[in-house]
Write a structure and sequence with these properties.
Layout (H helix, E strand, L loop, with lengths): L1 E5 L2 E5 L4 E4 L2 E4 L9 E3 L5 E5 L3 H7 L9 H11 L6 E5 L5 H9 L2 E6 L2 H14 L5 E5 L2 H8 L5 E6 L4 H5 L2 H4 E11 L2 H13 L3 E9 L3 E4 L2 E4 L6 E9 L2
Parallel strand pairs: 7-8, 7-10, 8-9, 10-11
Antiparallel strand pairs: 1-2, 1-6, 3-4, 5-6, 11-15, 12-15, 13-14
The protein binds S-adenosylmethionine (SAM).
Amino acid sequence: MILLCHGDREYLRAPGAELHTDLGMLTVPDDVENGDVLETHLGTEFVARELRGPDLFNHLERTGAPMMPRDIGLVVGHTGAAADDRVLDAGTGTGVLSAYLGRLGASVTTYEQDPEFAEVARENMVTAGVEDRVDVRTGDITDDLDSLTGGEPFDLLTLDTEDAPEIVASAPNLLADGGYVAVYSPFIENSRKTVAAAEEAGLSGVETIETIQREMTFDDRGSRPSTAGVGHTGYLTFARHS
Ligand SMILES: C[S@@+](CC[C@H](N)C(=O)[O-])C[C@H]1O[C@@H](n2cnc3c(N)ncnc32)[C@H](O)[C@@H]1O
């Protein structure tokens, strides 16, 4: 898939597909490449752009609320997620976190309990070009914790589910030595339960952070944090098996 961009407008299309807008019509060439300039029959130019992480956040078909790029950045920074890591993830939801990790070169096994969401996530992994690295499994991850235990250990366990504390209790059985757990929670109550589960499981370096980001505005009068929007997204809890 490729993005066709004109100003603020972006359209996701496959090579060979057509684009019809009020700016005219064009057919995406089969051999389209990043940076190609395509012209509609009305003479409007669109630049073809390969999808990168933020484009996935904006353009993948949404089911479960996706993790925001800034929170994914914190997950990568705090856990050192890298190429060739083995990642166990739940729930898949839209699959934005899984797709980012796949694009890093990690091998991701991700669980989604809603069959329709899982099907959409599989298509999203094709759009992201990571279908070979991200295995979307339909089902409740808690049903498979026993069978996942004893297999090749994971380097990273990423959780974005309400029942994360229950899964964290199994982390020592799932993770390689030095492997990390990262749990995203929209509510602090769930983070507190996650911390208790991590400590009970004997994980080390247990910490919870609130993720806040303030956009700056610069104009003729001066510079200050934007007064629009809320800077808070949620809480991230990290812990390590060692
Ligand atoms: C907030 S979304 C996850 C979004 C995802 N991190 C992303 O970046 O797109 C949470 C998803 O977890 C799924 N879920 C909740 N509990 C689960 C479980 N125990 N096993 C598998 N999936 C689960 C829900 O159906 C929902 O789609």
